[in-house]
Design a protein that fits this description.
Layout lengths: L1 H18 L6 H9 L3 H6 L6 E5 L4 H14 L4 E3 L7 H9 L12 E5 L5 H7 L4 E4 L13 H13 L4 E5 L3 H8 L6 E7 L1 H4 L20 E10 L2 E6 L2 E6 L5 H18 L5 H9 L7 E7 L2 E7 L3 H9 L8 E4 L20 E6 L3 H10 L3 E5 L3 H10 L4 E6 L1 H10 L11
Parallel strand pairs: 1-3, 1-4, 2-3, 4-5, 5-6, 6-7, 11-15, 12-13, 12-15, 13-14
Antiparallel strand pairs: 7-8, 8-9, 10-11
Helix pairs in contact: 1-2, 2-5, 4-10, 4-11, 6-7, 7-8
Length: 418
């Protein structure tokens, strides 16, 4: 009886909270309080398995690509919306899909999970397979070192039952997979030297702190990446893929998603269907997403950490014409911005948020001119939209991105951690 009660209360809360605008993790948190086994009760019936996607960066994009590929192959796929990757966010997402008895009608679950919390979800519902995007440097307030992230993901891999696919060109995820090769099917997705050179800073992997030089069996290779075009090879057969947004990081995510889909689908996997699925996918929020608002095109670039911002800046073809930077206390330690190569930014029109003056100092240090300093985000947005030009770029942290999307009328995200 606890599961139906959790569903009833959770669905009611979800409905009320979405009326006020946006998603929330509160319904999921309450559902878990009522029924601590809510995840097990709802997710434990997947005919084609449960698969997790994790890593420092690229989780949301890779998950969205993988889900689209599987759906275009005819599978009914359950997934959590981007950002809802903690237990309470996942539970909130499930409330949208379960019936009143807590039952689901899907074939397979593809779930983005946070690096630190993935093992907690896996302890409740063990994944059949795990896809790891990378291990990169993160903010000090979140993870002190890449080794810490490695340990979290290694614990998650220990709870995985059948398969692990990793970014084989990231020495740390490759080594992690090798450590489980005696128990799991372990595969790597590799990036050719030509593709690697397409981005000024490569794949921005964390330092290789322990690797014996071993290679995994190859699931796929990213042969080439240029702008919106990529070439992926599986079993020696290359095929073209059009990306939702330009950049090596998007191409790597696509190769990972396609390779993992191939393992899930087996002989039913179709390369042309996979390529078409990814080409028709919109950009994931904050990753080159372009929002049309009041006749203007606003591109949102999210600065989660150093590698994520650098990858997005590397993907810019030209310097943005009109730029707004807005960062708040969601980035408590902004010291890492001094390690960013800002070569693609030649000016900033307005800076806002509680980190206004830290960013102004960073730009001055680089001799990059900036316009107004307006700590109020609402006032800064109003000023930014009043500037001439129909194409604008906003560089924001996760919290400011969520606020901005709400302000622009986009209320489609569940609560969670980015």
């Amino acid at each position: 009886m606890l599961t139906p009660l959790a569903v009833l209360v959770g669905k009611a809360l979800r409905f009320v909270l979405r009326l006020r605008g946006g998603g929330s993790a509160v319904p999921g948190r309450i559902a878990l309080l009522i029924q601590p086994k809510f995840l097990q009760k709802t997710l434990g019936r997947m005919a084609s398995g449960i698969y997790f996607v994790s890593g420092s960066n690229g989780k949301s994009t890779t998950t969205a690509m993988l889900v689209k590929v599987l759906r275009d192959h005819g599978l009914r796929v359950l997934t959590n919306p981007a950002g809802g990757n903690l237990p309470q966010g996942l539970a909130s997402a499930l409330l949208a899909d379960v019936d009143w008895l807590g039952k689901l009608s899907h074939d397979v679950a593809i779930l983005e999970v946070d690096e630190a919390y993935g093992k907690l979800i896996a302890a409740k519902v063990a994944p059949n397979g795990l896809l790891l995007t990378n291990i990169q440097l993160d903010q000090l307030n979140r993870f002190h070192s890449p080794e810490e992230v490695f340990d979290y993901l290694d614990e998650l891999a220990k709870l995985t039952t059948d398969l692990i696919v990793v970014n084989g060109s990231d020495a740390n995820t490759e080594r992690l997979a090798m450590g489980h090769s005696d128990r799991l099917k372990t595969l790597g997705v590799y990036i050719s030297p030509k593709a690697m050179k397409s981005a000024a800073h490569g794949i921005l992997a964390a330092p290789d702190f322990q690797n014996d030089g071993s290679n995994l069996d190859e699931a796929a290779t990213l042969v080439d990446a240029k702008g919106l075009k990529a070439t992926v090879s599986i079993a020696g057969k290359p095929f073209p893929v059009m990306l939702p947004s330009p950049g090596l990081h998007y191409a790597v995510d696509a190769a990972l998603a396609i390779a993992f889909a191939g393992q899930i689908l087996g002989p039913k996997f179709l390369p042309d269907v996979s390529a078409k699925a990814i080409s028709g996918l919109p950009a994931v929020y904050g990753r080159g997403e372009v929002i049309e608002y009041q006749g203007q095109k606003l591109e949102i670039i999210m600065m989660k950490n150093l590698p994520s911002l650098q990858a997005n800046l590397d993907a810019l073809v030209t310097s943005p014409k009109c730029v707004w930077i807005s960062v708040d206390e969601g980035t408590p330690d902004p010291s890492w911005i001094y390690d960013i190569d800002l070569g693609k930014i030649d000016h900033v029109d307005v800076i806002s948020g509680t980190k206004t003056y830290q960013w102004a100092t960073r730009l001055a240090y680089e001799d990059i001119g900036y316009g107004k300093l307006i700590e109020s985000e609402s006032a800064a947005l109003e000023y930014f939209l009043s500037l001439p030009g129909a194409e604008k770029t906003a560089i924001v942290n996760y919290e400011q991105m969520m606020w901005l999307r709400k302000k622009l009328g986009l209320l489609d995200l569940e609560g969670g951690n980015g």
